[in-house]
Design brief:
2 copies of one chain form a homodimer.
Chain A (H helix, E strand, L loop, with lengths): L14 H9 L5 H19 L2 E4 L1 H13 L11 E4 L26 H8 L6 E3 L27 H8 L5 E6 L5 H7 L2 E4 L19 E6 L2 H12 L7 H5 L5 E4 L10 H14 L5 E4 L9 H16 L1 H6 L6 H11 L3 H22 L8 E5 L16 H9 L3 E8 L5 E7 L5 H15 L2
Parallel strand pairs in A: 2-3, 2-4, 7-8, 7-9
Antiparallel strand pairs in A: 1-3, 4-6, 5-6, 5-10, 9-11, 10-11
Chain lengths: 439, 439
């Protein structure tokens, strides 16, 4: 008698696998949702990835979806949504007691676009306080005593822990790439300005970027295609047959901050990619480039102090000391100085094109560190955003690739950075790199 | 016995005059608010500038202000707020039945900044449906059978009709400059990106700009200083002693659409400004400049269809046919095409610098038409946004100067356009121009 192959539990499927199982009716949206909810029930006590869960509504929505026509690329997929995005049917707290129990009137645009494409929401994932430093309760599912990173803490942890195949996040400094790195999942921060931010708590208009998390490169394409409305991210042929890229190595002016684990990961990646890359060389840091880290801090502090003017004026006592300190810092910058900082940002964005322009350095992507090292121990901080601040300020698309681990056994990886607007090329290049980096 | 001079009723004071009267205790915030409310009560039946009024709360806030310390540059000033801005204590409808009775959890950032500076809100002013074309009930206070323009219809009408000294608006195509022109008040669209949009219904991130209305140039400076956090807009000396500007005449590629009234206003302005300007000449339209009007339409349609994804998916039947048609148009543009449009927009913004750069054309400001002509008859449409689309796309600061009238007796004026980030210089130049244009 032949052995019956044990099917994997549905929650372990990545999004593409789940889409295929749903399309072939191997599984229903309801069954997939139920298994994800079961996984959440098993693990949530330890991980605390969710700010709010609503299993009954999610299952009802799944049943309705099963009874109807195919909705789109995310049909039937459970999607985690960072609690910085408004949702009409789930409370939205922005990680702050000020908004406990808040019920927005509408879904954020990114949520509505995902729902239009068939995604289902089991709940909202934990964010730090207004996506800044003050952490939520989430633990790193790889080692519970370590931070999952922030600010999209719950989204990264839930995807890493197989609670959900996909989740939405936002990045103002390092809030997608850093938790992706610490939790060992793929993270995608698209080109600034391509994904609508309507209904996402606005913190810094110059920086806030909507993106997401997944357990494979192609899953990032699935989510990204919907968020960007760009079907090229779904083009499997382009991904499978991506030409060998010209890779610029860019440890940034802060290279000295890479710890020995990150240095080892860097050496490993260079060794794996060099033999087959069309080119692999040190990318030159433009001499006229301003200090991006310092500039990102100034822009963020000033814009947060003004975007959160209502909270700053009405609820100061309910905000963390660190956020209040940021407001003071931000208000020390005048609007006149801020205009200069915005002009410097604009100039820096133009300079960045030189990395990719065929008439200049001509790289297809930059390889860069994501974090200083693996997730620090303790939950009182979410780690250093250093290596992401500059790319966020430049508005360039970034993908974190998790391919190794540190001496502590925690996940580690690097990010690749692409040209503005060429998110589909970056995704194809991510696939190429991943084929050569995967353990 | 000497004649006692009749004091003007407080609601006729402009904001600067009111600030001085408040500072010298000639008048209380409560008395000013009461007189504005009286004016509103006299006129609102005819003009219908307000989506919501709350006299009791406004008077209570005024009394509290009178009993406390000086709050800031807008201390005690009644401020009209377009019903596209969230307010925590007043319903916010975005001009749509979908949001009838909606109560946001927080003030929009711009509202909170104005309140922090001492402004008081008697109510919310009428916007068109989601700041697009479908009009609200507001009449033009200059001739009730004519449109006040849109989308900031109520804010422009209320300021024009002396109901309030200042009001907030937003512009995605022509929504500040056009109603300012039609109602005969000063309108200010600041440089894109300088005023936080948090809590303003997000329609088009590439275009949405927060600004306002007033009855004098210096009043625009008062409001602008708070919105931009830039005290240079309050610098009276800089305004009074502004050097004669180099003026570029820029009728745009659509000059043929200026009607005979606008042509006459144009000739009148050129005659008044030419003798004393440091330079006054035709500004060259950059040869590589894309068709800004076409590009603005494409960007706006695509971004509105995606930013309003929730309303499009959940409330389509409650939206106007014209908005639904815009969504269809916007979704016909792919995200890939949109990325190209955004890159073209960025390139156009760089080209625009040539008008102002001393190494290139070197103008301090461009003089340009605001509208085709005076406010059209009827309330079923808000007029053509043609002459504002391009400047909005370029993100340049614009000020409308009302200085003459058409043959129908309705107000008419022109706009001046400045370099990005130099809002304070544009304001000083507006004062210089106004001194020479005023009737």
């Amino acid at each position: 008698m032949p052995m019956k192959l044990l099917k994997p539990r549905p929650h372990t499927l990545d999004a593409w696998q789940a889409v295929q199982a749903l399309a072939s009716r191997d599984i229903s949206a309801q069954a997939l949702m139920q298994d994800c909810l079961d996984r959440i029930a098993e693990r949530e006590g330890a991980v605390q990835a969710f700010a709010h869960l609503d299993p009954a509504t999610a299952l009802a929505a799944a049943r309705a979806l099963d009874a109807g026509p195919w909705r789109g690329p995310l049909h039937g997929l459970p999607l985690g949504v960072k609690d910085l995005f408004d949702t009409a049917d789930l409370p939205t707290g922005y990680g702050s007691p000020v908004y406990a129990g808040h019920r927005p009137a509408a879904d954020a645009a990114a949520v509505a676009l995902c729902r239009e494409a068939g995604a289902l929401l089991p709940g909202k994932t934990v964010t730090t306080e207004f996506a800044y430093f003050h952490p939520g309760p989430t633990h790193n599912p790889r080692q519970l005593g370590h931070t999952p990173g922030g600010s999209s803490s719950g989204s990264a942890a839930a995807v890493a822990d197989n609670m959900l195949p996909l989740a939405l996040g936002t990045q103002m400094a390092a809030s997608i790439i850093r938790p992706a790195a610490f939790c060992g999942v793929f993270g995608f921060k698209p080109s600034l300005g391509r994904v609508p931010r309507a209904g996402v708590k606005s913190l810094s208009e110059t920086l806030d970027t909507v993106g997401g998390f997944a357990r494979s490169v192609r899953d990032l394409g699935l989510l990204g295609a919907v968020l960007l409305g760009d079907l090229r991210l779904l083009d499997e042929a382009a991904v499978q047959h991506a030409p060998a890229p010209r890779i610029g190595l860019c440890t940034t002016p802060d290279a000295a901050q890479m710890d020995s684990d990150t240095q080892a990961a860097w050496a490993q990646a260079v060794q794996a990619l060099a033999p087959q890359a069309a080119q692999l060389a040190d990318a030159a840091w433009p001499r006229a480039m301003p200090d991006l880290v310092a500039l990102q801090k100034l822009v963020m502090a000033h814009e947060m102090a003004r975007s959160l003017a209502h909270e700053r004026c009405q609820h100061r006592a309910a905000l963390s000391p660190r956020l209040n300190a940021l407001f003071d810092e931000g208000l020390a910058t005048s609007g006149a100085q801020h205009a200069t900082h915005l002009a410097q940002t604009q100039a820096a964005r133009q300079l960045a094109d030189g990395w990719f322009d065929a008439q200049a350095q001509g790289y297809d992507l930059l390889l860069a560190p994501s974090t200083l090292g693996t997730a620090p121990a303790g939950l009182q901080a979410t780690g250093d955003p250093l290596f992401c601040r500059g790319w966020t300020l430049l508005g360039l698309p970034c993908i974190h690739l998790p391919f190794t681990q540190g001496r502590d056994g925690l996940p580690l990886g690097l990010q690749i950075v692409g040209r503005w607007g060429e998110d589909h090329r970056l995704l194809a290049a991510a696939h190429w790199c991943w084929q050569r980096l995967r353990p």
